[in-house]
UniProtKB/TrEMBL annotation, chains A, B:
Keyword Cell inner membrane: no
Natural source organism: Flavobacterium microcysteis
Needed cofactors: FAD
Domain of life (superkingdom): Bacteria
Domain (FAD-binding PCMH-type) ranges: 41-220
Residues annotated as signal peptide: none
Protein name listed in UniProt: FAD-binding protein
Pfam families (alphabetical): FAD-oxidase_C, FAD_binding_4
Alphabetic keyword roster: FAD, Flavoprotein, Oxidoreductase
Phylogenetic lineage: Bacteria, Pseudomonadati, Bacteroidota, Flavobacteriia, Flavobacteriales
Gene Ontology molecular function: FAD binding; oxidoreductase activity
Length: 470, 470
């Protein structure tokens, strides 16, 4: 893999493709596109390109094959696994000019959108037409929908509505070799050949560059009920999660936050205050939604009955839009708040939801063994627990040598509980060398061979997803 | 590809693997396993094997690679695209002994099941635990759940609940080369490597043999409302479909039946009678489901308001379980009834649902051009229309030469409407040479290369899905 700065000839040919206004060699721009939200990593590309069409990307990729230049697609730079880091330098390909919602199809409840549209912008645009795009990553205010597809992003509403993959019907993709294809059809059902669409979703920019996305939408819901439930015992909060589903309720959100997560966030953001008893160890934030308020109250009542089997403090029912917004602001800011507090590493563990208490207890025990503190929160309804390992006062040496052993043990635990490494953040750069925990050599070689089918010269987002040792 | 009868040595080694009671060479058995429900095709395998474990299948596949013997997996023999036909002879691998529901996990709302379990058996077993497996193919009384996964089967409830792929979390698969792998994890969310699970779903037994399936379940619904709506104009029935969704309702079933489909079925089955005016051209069968009867009545009322914009006769509301069962019996028997009436070919067209009227009108026009009659019915809520082309009095010569031209035009129409060839039946043997209508050479070669990654010697279900010319 070529990692040195590109030749003058290559640069000049790239400039011809995108035009001089959209090719950047200056350090500031390269540094800006050299990081996402993954820890404190910075890997500046040699050159930043901002193409505006699938045809331009096709020309860039053909040239990249000719010169064997690594190409790293870059979205909203909110990734947590380092998928957008140009770890082998080369071309950093920003998708920000693909920023149009091409067609909201109110007849078929579909939208065709370019990948550089911010997720919240898409949500709001379809809502204006009475439609609902449910996937709701915490970074929705700045992440790109293309990045959501590439990472198979989830978020708080996945528990009822599914993740990004469940909404993607069809993708226009520029293959690493430069051909432009559609992966499927704009239909709700499809049994026509291998599912290239779902192979592309979650492939983290390693199999192709997505240039158009057709997604299904739902009719919007008109009502919801939101409650915040303080637990005196964290494990009990996790136990309550499976019990709620067992009672026949599917909440539209079921979020878990450890005490530290909520305390740190309350200090981090403005305008939200809560009166929490000292003995409270964790909270569940629970939402039910639908069109019939009576039904939602009845469901909230059933949930309350389940919760009363556990040691909880008084439940807070958000009784205004402002209060709902405040609670969601709190939940959405947790990641940033925890990270602002210390150097950290975040793991995106996921298990069948009933195993959550075992996972949480196991993580704390592993932390004790290796001497690290963790702050846990996440989408408990999906069994998806974000584990923030905070450096705090740990020595640099221990941080470097002990933490990877601890992380390995955490992942071994998730896999032993029938879970896996990542629920919604992807593997990218930072988790790739743990992939042997989830997959055998046979499985990893299958994936490597699939990558080879798409990208024979390994130019597209090299050094991601698959372990270095493979 | 070797098509002659297997060598004595190979037979004797296969017998060692499965045991003499589970290897069959007699003509009756080979003929029985030589057909499914696809037209009148019969392709008997050279030998029928009935293995009972992944390890036996692994040994069979390793041997098949050694001798280059084609292997065709066989499920419930209800397929409509010929996926289970041993078109190159070789080994017919019946999965019927994989007939156990291994674990209904009431805590995580999941089930682990072997592929040879009949879909209805699975539905009923989980229902006893208060759980719901929604995919509901019309053949549910005899099809295998493994075949549903292989074909990505849909059925009447897909419109609200999705298709088989939306329930598959993880698969144990014997790869064509004999390795046994799991494709993913037992989690609702997963962003860990390429989605091998979804690559396997719908791959029609060409990429591996599924030996265990982990599926998610939902809490069961307690109530539903079912109505049968007679339309005086078929196109209007199709138009009403998109309007119902536009009104914010997501029915749990929304089925379309042309007049002939319903008439032929009423003659074919016992115990169901309906009084249908002569002028009625088509029916919609509409179901809403949930836990709150008041909500369902209100939704049924909203649907009625939409329907009253069209020329309809009186709506029949099924007011007892018996009447509901009778209407579903009618709907489920349509395929068989239509097929019992004549030699036929069935196409499984799918388009975005708003395009249904154009599709229906186009199909009739193509029929007029080529001189064939078609009977159409299917899952209108998904835009999935089954087109039964009946031979009737057409000459054998025209049937052979004209019909393929007509089918090609029908598929060209579906693709021009942003649809595709198959919504839920798969491509298999009978549609493979139409794949060039939906996919370019680039896409088809990608699929071929993926197949090659999994099955370097092309021993597994050869001659399916991909066109002969590739």
């Amino acid at each position: 893999m070529k990692t040195e700065i590109l030749s003058k000839e290559a640069i000049s040919r790239l400039e011809e493709i995108v035009g001089p206004s959209f090719l950047f060699l200056d350090e500031e721009t390269r540094n800006y596109y050299g990081h996402d939200e993954t820890e404190d990593y910075v890997f500046p590309p040699s050159v930043v390109l901002k193409p505006a069409s699938a045809e331009e990307i096709s020309a860039i990729l053909k040239l990249a094959n000719e010169y064997k230049i690594p190409v790293t697609p870059i979205g909203g730079k909110t990734g947590l696994s380092g998928g957008a880091l140009s770890i082998h330098q080369g071309i950093g390909l920003s998708m920000e000019r693909f920023n149009k919602i091409l067609h909201i199809d109110e007849q078929n409840l579909q939208v065709m959108v370019e990948p550089g549209v911010v997720t919240q912008t898409l949500q709001e645009a379809v809502l204006e037409k009475g439609l609902f795009y449910p996937p709701d990553p915490s970074s929705r205010g700045s992440c790109f929908i293309g990045g959501n597809v590439a990472e198979n992003a989830g978020g708080a509403r996945a528990v009822k509505y599914g993740v990004t993959k469940d909404y993607v019907l069809n993708l226009e993709v520029v293959l690493p070799t430069g051909e432009i294809i559609w992966t499927g059809a704009n239909t709700l059902k499809n049994s026509t050949g291998y599912n290239l669409t779902q192979l592309m979703v979650g492939s983290e920019g390693t199999l192709g560059i997505i240039t158009k996305i057709v997604m299904k939408l739902l009719p919007k819901n008109t009502h919801n009920v939101l409650m915040l439930v303080p637990f005196f015992n964290s494990s009990q909060a996790c136990e309550a999660v499976a019990k709620i589903f067992k009672a026949g309720i599917t909440p539209s959100a079921l979020e878990f936050m450890e005490r530290d997560a909520i305390d740190w966030t309350l200090r981090f953001i403005d305008g939200v205050s809560l009166n929490i008893k000292d003995e409270v160890q964790a909270h569940l934030l629970i939402e039910v939604d639908g069109n019939y308020p009576d039904v939602l109250f009845s469901e909230a009542e059933k949930i309350t009955e389940v919760l009363e089997q556990f040691a909880i403090d008084e439940i807070l029912f958000a009784d205004s839009e402002d209060q709902k917004n405040a609670l969601w602001k709190l939940r959405r800011a947790v990641a940033e708040a925890v990270k602002s507090n210390s150097v950290y590493k975040e793991e995106d563990t996921v298990v069948p939801r009933y195993e959550l208490p075992k996972l949480l207890e196991g993580i704390k025990a592993i932390g004790n063994k290796y001497g690290f503190k963790s702050v846990c929160y996440g989408h408990a309804g999906d069994g998806n627990l974000h584990v923030n390992i905070v450096k705090g006062n740990m020595s640099d040496q221990d941080w470097k040598t002990e933490i990877p052993k601890g992380i390995r043990e955490i992942f071994e635990l998730t896999v032993s509980l029938k879970g896996t490494l990542s629920g919604e953040h992807g593997i990218g750069y930072v988790q790739k060398n743990y992939m042997d925990i989830a997959f055998s050599q046979t499985q990893l070689l299958l994936m490597k061979n699939i990558k080879q089918c798409f990208d024979p010269n390994s130019i597209l987002n090299p050094g991601k997803v698959l372990p270095d040792s493979l």
